[in-house]
Task: inverse folding
């Protein structure tokens, strides 16, 4: 059986090699040697890393970040490709995964193409650490955060972390691996990650809660204009009532704002589980390369907590002009649970207009009781 980690590394290496040798035609001799994997062939990129290492040669290989402070963790001139991000954090606040905001900027733009609380970006959407591995994101024992999304840039790249807590981060450790390349392919796209939440979702009542043909009141993962493709989402759910939260269907609007092109059959189906992930007495957390629900606590009860992810690496959802990725919160949006999500995609423009990030207090998950 093939090792999933090897598959992932091979996939990423293929992308990186394509970026390093744009437009290179394959000769007959090259085709005769296709049996050689890419990592056994000569490469044309330069491997580099930017990290929080102690420049004095000592062992303080981290950055402290005061409450309210911002630290630039990466800056590079292009063309280049970020291939891997690793962070681990020692912070005094129990809510630091929700309080620290990660932002990424491409080609000198002052608007971020990546903006999310750091926990949500790495799939920890409820502010708790959980150990899991997927094709693109992972959290390892010791509370280390990993991202393997390939991020090309034509001119420059910059990442910052902002500590929106009043308490300091004693130690922020960072390692970001990247490549300098001769040029990028003409069709290389920019990576985007956007955070959204509804805490709580507003339930639809009455006759309107029976049918939902157009997705009018759906939860929105992301909305953007341009050309690109959707790679997937992470979603945290905190239940505000007993029962199964996931009767909602996914609906993806592609190049048509009025009608979804893609319609699914239920929330657990979209995340490639089934039957309520096992139900109130049988739910078992799981994590696979392209899908998972690595956190399931108090299933189907008030206060129940779920973290889920779904990647479209097998078939990224392409759009030419417009994308709105949505999902119902309950059947026909009849439930009022708390949703916290990050959506990941590539597009031709290096930024898009993101909605304003909610305040720290609004981002902290808490059960909302009925009034």
Result:
């Amino acid at each position: 059986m093939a090792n999933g980690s090897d598959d992932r590394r091979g996939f990423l290496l293929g992308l990186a090699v394509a970026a390093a040798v744009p437009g290179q035609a394959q000769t007959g001799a090259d085709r005769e040697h296709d049996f050689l994997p890419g990592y056994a062939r000569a490469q044309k990129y330069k491997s580099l890393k930017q990290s929080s290492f102690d420049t004095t040669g000592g062992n303080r290989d981290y950055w402290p970040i005061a409450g309210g402070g911002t630290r630039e963790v990466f800056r590079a001139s292009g063309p280049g490709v970020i291939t891997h991000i690793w962070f681990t954090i020692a912070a005094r606040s129990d809510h630091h995964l929700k309080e620290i905001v990660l932002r990424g900027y491409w080609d000198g733009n002052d608007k971020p193409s990546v903006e999310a609380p750091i926990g949500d970006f790495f799939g920890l959407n409820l502010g708790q650490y959980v150990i899991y591995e997927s094709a693109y994101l992972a959290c390892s024992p010791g509370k280390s955060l990993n991202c393997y999304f390939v991020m090309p840039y034509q001119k420059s790249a910059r990442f910052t972390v902002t500590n929106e807590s009043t308490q300091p981060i004693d130690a922020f450790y960072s390692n970001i691996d990247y490549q300098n390349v001769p040029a990028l392919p003409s069709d290389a796209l920019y990576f985007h990650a956007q955070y959204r939440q509804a805490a709580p979702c507003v339930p639809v009542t009455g006759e309107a809660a029976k049918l939902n043909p157009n997705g009018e009141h759906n939860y929105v993962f992301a909305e953007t204009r341009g050309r690109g493709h959707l790679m997937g989402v992470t979603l945290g759910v905190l239940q505000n009532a007993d029962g199964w939260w996931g009767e909602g269907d996914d609906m993806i609007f592609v190049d048509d704002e009025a009608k979804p092109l893609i319609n699914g059959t239920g929330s657990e189906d979209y995340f490639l589980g089934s039957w309520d992930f096992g139900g109130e007495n049988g739910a078992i957390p799981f994590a696979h390369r392209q899908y998972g629900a690595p956190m399931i606590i108090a299933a189907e009860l008030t206060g129940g907590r779920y973290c889920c992810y779904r990647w479209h690496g097998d078939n990224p959802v392409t759009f030419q002009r417009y994308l709105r990725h949505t999902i119902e919160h309950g059947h026909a949006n009849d439930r009022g649970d708390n949703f916290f999500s990050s959506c990941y995609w590539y597009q031709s423009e290096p930024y898009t207009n993101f909605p304003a990030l909610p305040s720290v207090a609004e981002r902290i998950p808490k059960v909302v009781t009925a009034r």
